[in-house]
Design brief:
By secondary structure, this protein is an alpha/beta fold. The protein has helices at 3-16, 20-34, 88-94, 112-115, 118-127, 142-152, 154-163, 232-237, 251-263, 269-282, 289-299, 317-323, 360-367; strands spanning 48-54, 70-75, 78-84, 104-106, 134-138, 175-179, 187-192, 195-201, 211-217, 220-224, 243-249, 304-310, 335-337, 343-348, 353-358. The chain has an eight-stranded mixed sheet. Strands 7-8-9-10-11-12-13 form a seven-stranded mixed sheet. Strand 14 and strand 15 form a beta hairpin. The chain binds zinc ion (ZN) (2 copies). One zinc ion binds next to loops. One zinc ion (ZN) binds at residues 109, 111, 204, 207, 227.
Length: 368
């Protein structure tokens, strides 16, 4: 090969394979053109935002509509999740949220639909910009799960650390487990700025312990049930709550399904009995809508938001109406069945709590 040809060849090669410095300078250009915009200004705003980043359940066939359990809490200089089901990172990124700023997760229990996205979230925040350790707070089992994830991701962390042009810090690639010693009444587990988070034990057999969270923000009181049947500790924690975010199993749909199933001649009596028992069993470890409505009324919770929906219905008004049938007989406050991407904007002047529900479609329209 002549020298001129060699230089031409090398020139082409270098153009297609930029050096590390060139790669770094290309990133903003490529980012602007191809990546979804991340809104970092939200981290400078003192208001409290709660994002429903997963409103479904373990049923995989509905997860293109409703991802498994995920709730994201965002306020000034603080961003964390409560549970991280599969797809957590993708949903947060799709909403344009500054997910690399997430450095904490508060877990309710160790069912896969609440934690299958946790390792990916720890990894994604790290490789995309997190500069501080990622703490995972959770009940008994937190060390086993987080240390297990850390071990599984050890090779990835090593490869990325070596490959990285951004100086990834290997010491913060994994998560740091923080055991929560939950009690029947809420016990404070975290405090920063205007946020105070407490944990309390709920009832989700055979899982033990399973916990719910009570969030205080400038006099506003928000309760997050986790997975639980309706139980006294949840009722007590929900007293006078401005917002109750509760998992829900639709009694109306379960009842209707059972009655139709009983009439179906294609199944034997034994099969029917087995499946009916299975459906009724759900009520032993999830919040049936009627009992939940009664509890919310007695606790004087001001607003009820239903998530972790069973069944994981389509996001139509018709299905939501069916899901909540007869709840208004027991609870007089507003009931909202939320969808993935919906959010709450919470403000307070210290005297009263203002809660605005923002459906995902409206949020997207506001950005246009
Ligand atoms: Zn569960
Ligand atoms: Zn669950």
């Amino acid at each position: 090969m002549k020298l001129t040809h060699l230089l031409l060849f090398l020139g082409t090669f270098l153009a297609l394979n930029p050096t590390t410095a060139q790669k770094q300078s290309l990133q903003p250009i490529m980012g602007q053109e191809y990546e979804k915009k991340i809104d970092n200004s939200l981290l400078k705003d003192d208001k409290l935002r709660i994002y429903f980043c997963g409103t479904g359940n373990p049923k995989v066939t509905m997860q293109d509509i409703r991802k498994p359990a995920c709730l994201a809490i965002l306020t000034k200089d603080d961003f964390f999740v409560i549970d991280a089901g599969e797809g957590t990172s993708q949903t947060l990124a799709k909403l344009g949220l500054p997910y690399p700023a997430i450095d904490k997760a508060f877990m309710t229990h160790w069912h896969s639909d609440h934690m299958a996205g946790l390792a990916a979230l720890i990894n994604n925040t790290w490789k995309d910009g997190r500069k501080t350790p990622f703490f995972v707070y959770g009940p008994y089992g937190v060390e086993q799960v987080v240390n297990g994830f850390n071990q599984a991701y050890q090779l990835d962390n090593l490869y990325r650390g070596i490959n990285s042009s951004n100086g990834l810090d290997l010491s913060i690639g994994g998560g740091v487990p923080k055991l929560i010693d939950q009690k029947e009444t809420p016990v404070k587990v975290y405090e920063q700025g205007n946020i105070e988070l407490s944990a309390f034990v709920v009832d989700h057999p055979p899982v033990y312990p399973a916990i719910g969270y009570s969030l205080k923000y400038k006099g506003c009181h928000i309760v997050i049930s986790g997975d639980t049947k309706v139980v006294e500790t949840l009722a007590q924690a929900s007293e006078d709550a401005d917002v109750l975010i509760n998992e829900a199993l639709s009694d109306a749909i379960v009842d209707e399904s059972i009655s139709q199933f009983k009439k179906n001649p294609d199944f034997s009596e034994a099969t029917k009995q087995k499946d009916i028992t299975l459906a009724q069993d759900l009520q032993n470890y999830h919040s049936g809508t009627y009992a939940l409505a009664k509890m919310a009324e007695q606790s004087k919770a001001k607003r009820l938001f239903l998530t972790h929906l069973t069944p994981a219905i389509f996001n139509t008004a018709e299905d939501k109406a069916k899901f909540t049938t007869n709840m208004d007989q027991y609870y007089k406050g507003p009931i909202t069945v939320v969808d993935d991407g919906d959010s709450l904007l919470i403000e307070s002047d210290g005297k009263g709590c203002k809660v605005q529900y923002i459906p995902v479609q409206q949020a997207a329209a506001d950005k246009l």
